Amino acid sequence: MAIDIKVPTVGESISEVTLVKWLKKDGEYANRDEVIAELESEKATFELNAEQAGTIKIIAQEGDTLKIGDIVCSIDTDAAKPEGAPAAPEKAAAKPAEAPKSEIVNPKSEIETKATPVAAAIIADKKVDVKTVTATGSNGKIVKQDVLEALSNPGRKPGVAMFGRKDRPEKMSNLRKTISRRLVEAKNTTAMLTTFNEVDMSAIMEIRSKYKDKFKEGHGVNLGFMSFFTKACTYALMEWPSVNAYIDGENIIYHEYCDISIAVSAPKGLVVPVIRNAESLSMAEIEKKVVELATKAKDNKLTIEEMTGGTFTITNGGIFGSMMSTPIINIPQSAILGMHNILQRPMAVNGQVVIKPMMYLALSYDHRIIDGRESVSFLVRVKELLENPALLLFGKDPVKSLLEL
Fold first, then answer.
1. Which of 110, 118, 132, 309 stands 20 to 30 A from 47 (CA)?
2. So which residues are the catalytic ones?
3. Domains along the chain?
């Protein structure tokens, strides 16, 4: 009996997906629940499993755009399982392969037969890969100049253009289409404005330098900058709730919690997974969540639920060397904080020029809901909390908290 494998429902708002890759060939046998293909929606990549064991007949091709419920393939459940086929999808750990004796050659003798004595000496001394050297000597011999040319231009063959003149069309993925649509929508539907400030990172860098080893030993995760920024933003969002709100028709929806979206660069494009109830998490819990979400993003394993929602976004362009930018709002949210590169800059402190590790901060916000007072005050509050990390314990000065001031 043949059964049809259809595109499953992956979310209320998703109506189509793209078949990214077949993991099984046409006519190949698949075990039950074995992954047979990868599909990509506008929000995430997910796997398609065989509902029953049998031989696969491919219907949809790689790159096809499919509607929910479309048939991807069929499986002949009456087909006999081939001899030697694995009983389960798990693969045994592969042992390092040994090269056949007939293929083992003496590297030195190979170089000597292909190169002049001087060239061979340079190759051996500089450990040059012979395959990267273009021979110009008689009978295909490598001469001294060939080796020197290879050392001067690693990865480039002499006389060969590094780039051609061809254009390569490539179909946009659903994820890239969604990113494009949402960015344009954000620019066209919000009254977006950006305000800037700068923060002295001396105190945070000192804390990280002093406690990073103990933190890693105690919590099993590195102490990064994201936990400090996330914690600072949650306090500031509670004080300035309009920054944590969004417009819904004629209503403003205020959130009494902070679901912080973090922008992550994944292989197929920018994704924005969410740290739920970040205001209730410790520094270690935030760092663990950041690592978990970033790892899933790189492996294309994020679920739609993990990327849905979010009340405020933090993006860190500093990891790519960005000094300043104007980040675009992640709609329907009303604001996004941009972190940037930390640079040693001369600063005036008490009439003296002092070198400080400084970072520019940028807050892009929807001016329809957030006024200048709220946006600037929010950013100043974030700056204050980051420059005085002790405030992150209570959200205000410990002495004032003690005195109930």
1. 309
2. 367, 371
3. 2-76 (2.40.50.100), 106-152 (4.10.320.10), 192-402 (3.30.559.10)
